[in-house]
């Protein structure tokens, strides 16, 4: 099957080296669509899925939607036109992605979601996500311990369109709110962005100079917050993240950020491809649509074992 002109333009515009593997789709192809690879979490997903697909004999089409639902819709159109056998997706919005996934299903192309859920069941074959509530509780328990069960703190929240942002925040508060001496003085979104988190943290520091801790909905925002705190000479402020990135691992090892929560991005993506392969060959996965993978607390005790969103033995 030849690469369509529209798809070729999309891949070139994305500027992703090696976005299409295999020879002009000579092999059956799996599309892998995620947010920007500038975030190492999403790059790990794409790398994990692509590696497993190649191992199983598939070509891959690796595309980026940049958290833009309209762009994601165009990429689905491209993947459908190219005749891919399955789509692995970390979506661009719980509500906004339903139509694209259903459109692929109606064309006989199954979708396997990772990391983020959509709000409808029965349109994707699998939705494999981290147990965000369990992970958030782990992070909150460590945060409470690090804070000595008292002090003013701020929370950085992810994108409102992302179900995970709300689940993590709820998990944090269900633990932290049990401690009356821990006071939330600010709760602001930084949209999963390191740059936004830096700016938001600067504003929070100005309004609340007595702040003692920051709990973040992901590691990228935690890195931005810590950079702002460091620039202000406030290394005394405790920062806890969520994701398990190598950047935060390195910060933990240097005594910077204190902890994070590992969600197994690489393994999730590989599991999705294995399930896609089984579905392509048999018409079923043998598993429930919604699947949770537990998270792991990362702190100074085990940070050295963390590598690319996976914990080494």
From TrEMBL:
<dbReference type="Pfam" id="PF13407">
    <property type="entry name" value="Peripla_BP_4"/>
</dbReference>
<dbReference type="InterPro" id="IPR025997">
    <property type="entry name" value="SBP_2_dom"/>
</dbReference>
<feature type="domain" description="Periplasmic binding protein">
    <location>
        <begin position="30"/>
        <end position="284"/>
    </location>
</feature>
<dbReference type="GO" id="GO:0030313">
    <property type="term" value="C:cell envelope"/>
</dbReference>
<dbReference type="GO" id="GO:0030246">
    <property type="term" value="F:carbohydrate binding"/>
</dbReference>
<feature type="signal peptide">
    <location>
        <begin position="1"/>
        <end position="26"/>
    </location>
</feature>
<dbReference type="InterPro" id="IPR028082">
    <property type="entry name" value="Peripla_BP_I"/>
</dbReference>
<keyword id="KW-0732">Signal</keyword>
<protein>
    <submittedName>
        <fullName>Erythritol-binding protein</fullName>
    </submittedName>
</protein>
<comment type="similarity">
    <text>Belongs to the bacterial solute-binding protein 2 family.</text>
</comment>
